[in-house]
Design a protein that fits this description.
Layout lengths: L17 H4 L2 H19 L25 E3 L14 H5 L5 E7 L7 E9 L8 H5 L5 E3 L14 E2 L1 H11 L16
Antiparallel strand pairs: 1-4, 2-3, 3-5
């Protein structure tokens, strides 16, 4: 690629006025946000909660990124097909999968071992986006605690138990792949 290539569109850097050079619009935008929160607080609206005495309310739990879960199919089997796309897409490298030949005729492989290091995870949701069968999803569970690093390593059984605990409150997101959310 050469600088005089006709397919390249060069864009001029926008000229800043005096307000832009003084960061005045950004300063006003920040003050506006501060005053909005102050008005809400003075009006009786709750801005903060005293966690863990009070549980915070999550507006839409379907878009919150909390603890992972491994979804099950309609026959109660793990939906994961051990394609390794989630582990490949994970920027924190916190997913470890050991694949094995599937005992079921509808897929080639399944995860013999599936481990997510919840302490290493950055909860970006890339694993969820990469999964072709919606086997991995992030839930709205946020109160994640453990006394040791080993307790925070979520294996397949623990991830499936998160599914059992959250399936009624948070159905699978993709209807085309067996989910019920719209």
């Amino acid at each position: 690629m050469k600088p005089d290539d006709p397919n390249i569109t060069w864009i001029e850097e926008p000229k800043l006025g005096l307000a832009g050079m003084l960061y005045l619009p950004l300063f006003v935008q920040g003050l506006t946000t501060t005053f909005k929160h102050m008005a809400k607080s003075l009006g009786g609206g709750v801005v903060t909660v005293s966690y863990p005495d009070e549980e915070p309310k999550i507006g839409n739990p379907l878009i919150y990124r909390g603890v992972h879960r491994l979804n099950k199919d309609e026959q109660g089997r793990v939906k994961c097909v051990a394609c390794f796309l989630c582990a490949t897409a994970c920027p924190a490298h916190c997913i470890d999968i050991i694949a094995a030949e599937s005992p079921w005729p509808d897929r080639e492989k399944y995860p013999q071992s599936f481990v997510i290091d919840e302490l290493r995870c950055i909860y970006c949701g890339m694993c969820e986006e990469a999964c072709p069968v919606d086997a991995v999803e992030l839930t709205s569970l946020y109160n994640l605690t453990g006394r040791s690093r080993e307790e925070m390593m979520f294996d397949k059984e623990k991830l499936l138990s998160v599914y059992d605990a959250t399936k009624d409150k948070e159905p699978m997101k993709s209807p085309a792949l067996g989910g019920t959310a719209t």
